[in-house]
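Run log, item B.
One chain of 144 residues. Sequence copied directly from the ordering sheet:
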Amino acid sequence: MSKDPATLLREHGVQVTAQRLAILRAVSGRPHGTADAIAEDVRADIGAISRQAVYDALGMLTEKGLIQRIQPAGAPALYEDRVDDNHHHLVCRTCGKTVDVDCAVGETPCLTADADSGFQIDEAEVIYWGTCPECLAETSGVGN
């Protein structure tokens, strides 16, 4: 997160609270974290907070464009604060590790669909699936 979290909240018309600041810090510190993992980090940071309060704040922060929600098929939603570009994700089928992948060609080629059916496209979401290096090493016996 390049800007101060309190400044970001104010710029987006969101009231600054200790809970929202802690959630933004947790999302920034744990890219691609689940809501439950973020809640654990927030509790470690500020103490008690309900699971529902975390879910509500994540939803509102996503709606305001401060964070991004990623929903890989068959997996829990993930959250990140990289919202300033149209990047993609790579997910390990074995352990669920998720990493960012920049668009392969130029600035916004991913926004050019073969057929747009009359839609004005403003975002593309691509999730690549595979096996991460650590899981590959475990299954091939490398390093054992």
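Observations after the first pass:
- The domain at 85-140 is CATH 3.30.1490.190 (Dna Ligase; domain 1).
- DSSP finds five helices and six strands in the chain.
Flagged for discussion on Thursday.
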